[in-house]
Backbone:
């Protein structure tokens, strides 16, 4: 039996151990799927706080209850750790680390590079390394392979390398890690075979593609598509505002057409770790080939300007009530970047809070899923705490700004008690509302 065939058989028999680096919104649900499929999983993270949470039953991701992982930990099926030496003990290493932008809005590959260097120090024969982090086409073979080759092991002979983009949608009740088709590209034919076998054990469908670059480009295209279409409806929203037309009513009417149209909705800006960031990875890579990406750059510009547009609408609405933003008290509803999750990564709500504070407003927030401000790379909101949403509290504010449309919020209560409501998500609905409700 060939070496690769033995590895594949170990995966099929659930004898292979799985290592997942990065226990966040991508890595933790992936660990859950592998554990439920009968694999033994070691989860690696540089944050000892996350490891302690998983060991002691505390939750740091709302839709992934820590007590479940604590049970797995006690049963010996899941081991969270900061000890990277344990990488030698696993057969598959799946990388789920952040790929942010730097201050110049260019790809920051620090986490991927440092993780790969760590793996290279512990790499042994018979392991497959798979990158799941969203990145530009060429990362796996141009950045990772040369680092892994420094171990002295040979690709496709001693170790294997693949790329399989994460497709997580936190809080989506209709799709989970196991039910979303998994695209896999290998750095060679054996890497592809082994990579597909690893994922076949935990997902309903595996989609093999011809190379790592195709798999990398696939994820970028998915997010570019969303970025551009969201920018389109954001631009239409600003136009229709001036024309006194409700853009949400327009979209709801348009989506009754059973073909040729897919509904996208405007908002106060883009959030999450994918759509605001990933298209710029492709734009950066395109510059190396001397090719402009005008659609992408224009879409990113429009989406980035949306918080400023919202603040302008707040100022206009307050002016009509004879009130300035400076010195006013404003309540932002929703800190998470989208409804019904506790994820604040790249959340436009944080930008809105900062812009209001820069204009001299006193700002609080309410979010049923984010009791206190979380650490963020470019923002400091850890001192903030969610305030209770009571009629008396609502009446204290000059304006309530709806930034995230959580289902659990009683918007009728908000409208009834607020002096002014600026709604960026159509949370108050299309039905006739009092003049104090302003869409933005």
Residues:
């Amino acid at each position: 039996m060939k070496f690769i065939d033995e590895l594949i058989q170990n995966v099929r028999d659930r004898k292979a151990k799985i290592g997942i680096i990065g226990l966040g919104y991508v890595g933790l649900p992936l660990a859950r799927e592998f554990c439920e499929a009968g694999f033994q999983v070691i989860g690696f993270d540089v944050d000892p706080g996350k490891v302690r949470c998983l060991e002691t039953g505390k939750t740091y991701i709302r839709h992934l209850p820590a007590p479940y992982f604590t049970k797995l930990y006690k049963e010996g099926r899941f081991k969270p750790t900061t000890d990277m030496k344990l990488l030698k003990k696993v057969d598959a290493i799946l990388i789920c680390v952040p790929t942010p932008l730097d201050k110049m809005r260019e790809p920051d590959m620090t986490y991927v590079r440092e993780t790969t260097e760590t793996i290279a120090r512990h790499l042994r024969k018979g392991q497959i390394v798979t990158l799941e982090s969203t990145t530009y086409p060429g990362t796996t073979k141009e950045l990772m392979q040369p680092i892994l080759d420094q171990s002295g092991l040979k690709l496709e002979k001693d170790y294997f390398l693949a790329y399989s983009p994460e497709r997580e949608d936190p809080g989506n009740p209709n799709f989970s890690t196991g039910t979303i088709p998994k695209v896999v590209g290998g750095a060679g034919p054996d890497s592809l075979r082994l990579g597909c076998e690893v994922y076949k054990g935990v997902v309903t469908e595996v989609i093999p593609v011809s190379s790592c670059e195709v798999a990398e480009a696939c994820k970028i295209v998915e997010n570019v598509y969303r970025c551009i279409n969201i920018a389109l409806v954001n631009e239409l929203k600003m136009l229709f505002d001036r024309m006194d037309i409700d853009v949400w009513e327009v979209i709801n009417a348009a989506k009754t057409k059973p073909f040729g149209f897919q509904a996208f909705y405007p908002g106060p800006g883009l959030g999450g770790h994918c759509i605001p960031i990933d298209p710029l990875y492709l734009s950066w890579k395109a510059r190396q080939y001397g090719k402009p990406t005008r659609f992408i750059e224009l879409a990113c510009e429009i989406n980035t300007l949306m918080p400023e547009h919202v603040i302008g609408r707040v100022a206009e609405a307050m002016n009509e009530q004879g009130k300035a933003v400076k010195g006013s008290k404003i309540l932002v509803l929703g800190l998470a970047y989208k409804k019904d999750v506790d994820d604040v990564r790249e959340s436009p709500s944080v930008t809105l809070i900062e812009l209001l504070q820069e204009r001299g407003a006193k700002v609080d927030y309410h979010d049923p899923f984010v009791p206190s401000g979380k650490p963020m790379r470019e923002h400091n909101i850890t001192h903030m705490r969610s305030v209770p949403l009571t009629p008396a509290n609502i009446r204290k504010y000059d304006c309530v700004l709806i930034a995230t449309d959580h289902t659990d919020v009683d918007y009728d209560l908000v409208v009834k008690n607020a002096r002014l409501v600026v709604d960026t998500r159509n949370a108050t609905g299309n039905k006739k509302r009092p003049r104090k409700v302003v869409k933005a």
